[in-house]
């Protein structure tokens, strides 16, 4: 990937930052003006707008589309094709955008806590350690965990951090890891060692192929809204507005495709159907 003059690099081994025109196209996609400085307020606005405009979705898994962990292709999926993705895709692309704007970004791997407090596979999730020009942070930025923190979290703080989606806190874990808690419940265990996007290929393969993965068991598309969240889970449209939840069952394929267009700006030519049953055969 070509770099424009003055492009800021990430840590050693990181992928190149996006060039100027691609950065502008990405910013247009999420409705943000180019920030004058790579500081904490800019990072907060970029994360909030990304969560509101680029859906967390696993549709590619259910319509047989490839998932390639290459930054250029991930950005193309989000910017050109107006799609979303799951954690590897969303945070992989967001990292490229942030580097293109002058932030220093390191990819971190995490294992997600499941039922009964059981940890998921290694490279279960990717999150971003972000350093800003104003000397604050470092920050944990994450646009790929679905319903999660709206603001970046101060990675070095062990105090509770208030967010519109709850109270978050980092707690020391074995081997130098950190557990992230939301309202007292463990979300994931974060390994602070730097990673490359290619390190997550096995985790991505597992989640898009295994019948044990929750991503193959159901079809989901979800994004933050100004006053809540909108989610399409299979054929059920779920809207949460100021804490009040409303569900609507969509009767026809046309209704489902229209919901993808109206709620997420996505044009699909088929209704995604869950693959888990077929994978077990």
What can you tell me about this protein's structure?
The structure is a single chain. The protein is of the alpha+beta class and 281 residues long. It has two domains: 20-199, 2-Layer Sandwich (Arylamine N-acetyltransferase fold); 213-280, 2-Layer Sandwich (Arylamine N-acetyltransferase fold). It has helices at 20-30, 40-53, 59-62, 71-79, 87-100, 201-209, 214-217, 253-264, 276-280; strands at 56-57, 104-112, 125-131, 139-141, 153-154, 161-163, 166-172, 178-182, 185-195, 220-225, 228-233, 236-241, 244-249. The strands form two sheets. It has an eight-stranded antiparallel β-sheet, covered by helices on one side. Strands 1-10-11-12-13 form a five-stranded antiparallel β-sheet. Strand 6 (161-163) and strand 7 form a beta hairpin. The longest helix has 14 residues, at 40-53.
Kindly report the average pLDDT value. 91
Largest sheet data: 8 strands, antiparallel
Report the total helices: 9
Q: N- to C-terminal separation? A: 41 Å
Strand content: 25-35%
Spatial order of the strands in the main sheet? 5-4-3-2-9-8-7-6
CATH architecture of the largest domain: 2-Layer Sandwich
Order of helices and strands: HHEHHHEEEEEEEEHHEEEEHH
Using the alpha-carbon principal axes, give the shape: globular
Query: In CATH, what is the class of the largest domain?
Result: Alpha Beta
Low-confidence stretches: 1-13, 277-281
Helix content: 25-40%
**CATH topology heading of the largest domain:** Arylamine N-acetyltransferase fold
What is the multimeric organization of the chains shown? single chain
The assigned structural class equals alpha+beta
In total, how many beta strands? 13
The domain count comes to: 2
